[in-house]
Amino acid sequence: MAIRILVMLVFVSFLSMQEILAQNNFHNFYNYLWGSNHFSVNPQGTEVQLLMDKSYGAGFRSKLDYGSGLFHIRMKIPEKKTGGIVTSFYLTSAPDNNQDPGNHYELDFEFLGTNGTVQTNVYNNDRGNREQSFNLWFNPSQDFHTYEILWNSRQIVFLVDYIPIRVFNNNNARGIDYPSKPMHVEASVWNADWSGTVDWSQAPFIARFQDFGFKACPASLGARCNRLNYWQFGQGQLQKMQQYRRLYMTYDYCAQPYTAKPECAFNNK
Q: Please, what is the average pLDDT of the chain?
């Protein structure tokens, strides 16, 4: 962690403030997707607010589709306590605004309600059901925190504040499918019955997003995206991931025979 922060500081010292702002500007990476007046972006393009009330929520998506990358956002979930409100940041191959995307690829961070539980999920050309959930070591409604998804031809890694919490390895050689189609990035706030009951007396619910830049390979580059690798576990990081999973993971689809899938034998070891 200390080495990463030092590298970031050295890098920033060579950038002008204008260049830094351009890297983090919403309009350089994303477009409005849905939500009408429930979506707003500040004049500087450095923060987006998505509002959820009884009528609808809101969302935005990346301008491009990608073949690999390290995708991140800083996010602050709604402060008012309720179930049923889902604040999400994810990659997906599904078409925009498709109510039933069917079998597809998707990599999710989803906050289920506003009590601080975050669920990760992988849709592997199917309907998902690979949930792993965590009660985080901080209150995600009180400040912005960084959520990252690494995806390349070797592995998928979910990270929170630069700490890896989940790995999904490419096991094509063992006959296990692996996300291989172009995906775009989306973020949204919406309500779902399966995530709890919404206390609408607390509405509106407002989710905030910052730090929009990311490093990724546009899908237009095709197979060249498969040669890019953005992550390797440093010394002690695997042990730290295992420690955080023991302390904070509350649900693991691999833990029970009736929900486990073949890849469970090869991931998060």
A: 88
Catalytic residue numbers?
106, 110
How big is the chain, counted in residues? 269
Token pair listed for 133: 């959930």
Strand stretches in the chain, DSSP E: 30-34, 39-41, 47-52, 58-62, 66-76, 85-92, 104-112, 117-126, 132-135, 145-151, 155-160, 163-169, 184-191, 205-210, 215-218, 249-252
Two tokens, residue 196: 């709890």
Q: What pLDDT, in 10s, does the model give residues 19-47?
A: 555 678 999 999 999 999 999 999 999 99
How confident is the model over 200-214, as pLDDT tens digits?
Answer: 999 999 999 999 999
Q: CA 197, CA 29: separation in Å to the nearest integer?
A: 34
CA separation, residue 263 to residues 5, 8, 86, 102, 122 (Å): 33, 35, 27, 21, 11
